[in-house]
From TrEMBL:
It comes from the Bacteria. This is FtsX-like permease family protein. InterPro entries: ABC3_permease_C (IPR003838), MacB_PCD (IPR025857), Macrolide_Exporter_MacB (IPR050250). It is found in: Cell membrane.
Amino acid sequence: MGKVTRRNLAAHKIRLVLTGVAVILGVAFVAGTLIFTDTMNKQFDDLFSRVGKNVAVDVRAEKVVGDDDGMAAQPVPASVLAALRGVDGVKDPKGNVTGYAAVVGKDGKVVGTPQNGPPQIGANWTAGGSYDLKSGRAPQGPAEVVIDAKSAEKGKLSVGDTAQVVTAGPPQRMKVVGLIDTGNLMGATVTAFDTPTAQALMLKPGYFSDIEMGSTGPSQAELRDRVAKVLPQGMEAVTGEKLREESKSDIASMMNFFQTFLLVFALISIFVGAFIIFNTFSMLVAQRTRELALLRAIGAARGQVTRAVIGEAVAVGVIGSTLGLLVGAGLASLLQSQMGDAGQGGLTFTSRPVIWSYVVGIVVTVVSAYFPARRAAKIPPVAAMRDDVAMPQRSLRIRVALGSLLTAAGAGLIAVGLAGGGGSPVALVGVGVFSVFIGVAMLAPVISVPVLRVLGAPFARLMGSPGRLARQNALRNPRRTAATAAALMIGLALITTVNVLGTSTSASMSAQVDAQFGADYLVMPTGAGSIGTEVPGKIKAVPGVRNASPTYTADAKIAGKRNSVMSGDVAEIVKAARLKMVAGSSDLGAAGIMMDEKSANKHGWTVGAMVPVQFTDGKTEPLRLTGVYTKSDLIGSNVIAEQAYRQHTVRPFIDAVIVDAATTGAATKTGIENALKDYPALEVSDQAALKDQISKQIDGLVKFVSILLAMSVIIAAVGVVNTLALSVIERTREIGLLRAIGISRRQLRRMIRAESIMIAVFGALLGMGIGVAFGAAMQNALADKGLGVLAVPYGTLVVYLVVAAVIGVLAALWPAWRAGRMDVLKAIATE
């Protein structure tokens, strides 16, 4: 039987190669994801090995708002630095200033990728810090700056040049006096000043972000305890080891999420590939039914026949996994190249991707091949004496009943998960989606018959006999057709769901902007920076502008839970957000707060109630609830008095400016942009521009996810090729007879192409129908979260249908070409 397995592998190379392609593509996604995340983790480890490498203890403000803040909001007074110098064991304490700063290149653009990209770091330069000077000297005075060498290269800047520096303040023209060697900072930019300049630009004179120190002998824990004794209230001391672990932990959480995100798409590809492998082995076994029956007749046991087929599956799994691992390395390299500066260096290879590639590839292939192998083993030996031996066709009743049950159960789980029920809503939705896919795949043979009759009618009418034969071939084995179409169904169902959600989100956000955006213009930073206090005045001086009001956003604990709060000129905020008050008024006075209905009702607060608010400085102040407004997605749930905000903030940072204009023509907008020409990191938006920005961000995300899901569609296309190729081999004698009675090669090829198009379009229609249903269900469940408009992208769905037809045409090219080249007499003589 071992020899039989090896000979079968050698005899059916083309068939098994087609099966192997599905394994290769599925495994490649898994291997590529694991190799890529291992590589990025290694780069982050190398990066953080330099952070605080000589730090024994770090002093910072206690985190009072949330435990996951990357940095304490309140700075450390410089007086703490003087007190630390008197602590026994403290070595060379240094105050650090960190914040947002970037440099403008000679092309007038800010160097770096501020929009959701790597950070643009501003810092004070300290001798013996984390970075070394590559050339030039350290900055001295308010007119000098050093920048990292990679930013200098991108901005075409060099030592001695004068460059504009962007911070949360007026434009700064500074001389570049040095370049920093930062190593691989994963795309982040570094701009450093002397300490007084850094404090003035990014914090406040006399304050530090944190203070680090070495040790003259005591252990980190012992020195931490000594330092803690001299710290004022609200400050804490942590060991350098803990500081580094916190930094690594934040990045590890992000990378784990990213890995999980990519692995979900890998599992989808494998799930689709399993359909293809199962279908291929079912057809292979069906074509070799007589051969396997003869083996039984000459004494092979059922177990031997099963093991022979499983042996072929193991061989395909091993070879496919090996090639998939190699393709995965290429995919990881491609992913790394898309990271820009954050993806520098070679790939990191560990045992993890190797092990999982073989486990996934072999297990999926063997499991998919087991059921056809088991059916083959049940063929009675006497069947070998029949010329018309074939695999038995079982009733679809059990399949329909089980498929209906799984579909209904899956829909129920999705409904419960989307409603927020159960312990893990995401898991419920995931299991529900999986169950629906399996259920619909089981029902597909029944669904395919009426659908294919309708889809085949135009082919039969326009193409004549080849069209009728194509329809009959597609209907001949509904199980096979359904299994092939189901693979395409899964990929297109998920892509359609993403598109429906994306289109609905864009439509919902546009509706919210139309309903809630009452400002004439909004000025916001394009990255993580803030706006200088002088900016509102510059905007207000523009002809046609009546008022320019700054707004602030901060974190605070309300009733013990972290919340985002907005502050500023409340009258302008109410006007700009078109707030509708349902109780009280928007007159906050010096210590008032107003909130939306949901938040007020949740706590049982009414107008006049005292709301306990804890600010980032650690102090708690009761604010009087003066008003309650309807839900606003643009400003959030809480607005507090500007005086209360400023009282608890060392340096207020403006995150947006609301512009009230007397005239809203192009001249006014151009005037505002001209007034801010020295602020390249600021963007002026009106209502249309804001909607366009939101739409572009959502479209970008939809395209990214669709590209990842496209792998499953590619695997499904391979499945169509597989099915047609094996079907042509299976129908060799039939094709020979058709040629003998007069069908031309051209007509034969048209028949196979038509059959392929019908299968692909059937799978696409099934998938898009499920996708629209999934998308509508998720939109309905998220309606109270802001997704209030259901929008179906009909134009995109038509494009997908055309793409499915094209996939059908392309998938049929090789099988049709092969069928047309068959020798008629040899084909008729085939058994």
